[in-house]
Amino acid sequence: QVQLVESGGGLVQPGGSLRLSCVVSGSIFSIYTMGWYRQAPGKQRELVAVITSGGTTSYADSVKDRFTISRDAAGNTVYLHTNSLKPEDTAVYYCNSALRTTAGPGNYWGQGTQVTVSK
User: 37, CA 20 to 30 Å: which among 5, 80, 104, 107?
Assistant: First the structure.
């Protein structure tokens, strides 16, 4: 069984920063990508940032130059460093991973962590 557990969300003032973390665990054979999505009230879930097993990163235009995705050396923890936060960044942030277990490939989600940007 695969688990993705996020942490690091919270309430922050505009212009502030947060670091989100996500740890992937379970019977994992290989991890292809790890990424962050977010969903604001009344809106669809959207991609924020993704990092591949080779280290290639990609970002939504709305967060470029403000957010940075990274991972640890073991490759099973992904971080989202958020800077210059804006009220419109308020959302539930979900960790996602495309990976292979002994049962085959799959796409997995965490439970989400709330980020609220407000004075």
Answer: 104
d(CA 80, CA 36): 8
Q: How does DSSP classify residue 30?
A: E
* pLDDT at residue number 75: 87
**Backbone φ, ψ for residue 63 (5° rounding):** -120, -5
Q: 74 to each of 5, 44, 56, how far by Cα in Å?
A: 16, 32, 16
Tokens standing for residue 26: 């379970």
Q: Helix and strand tally (H, E) in the chain?
A: 0, 11
CA quadruple 41, 70, 108, 106: dihedral sign: positive
Summarised one tens digit per residue, pLDDT across range 40-86 is: 999 999 999 999 999 999 999 999 999 999 999 988 999 999 999 99
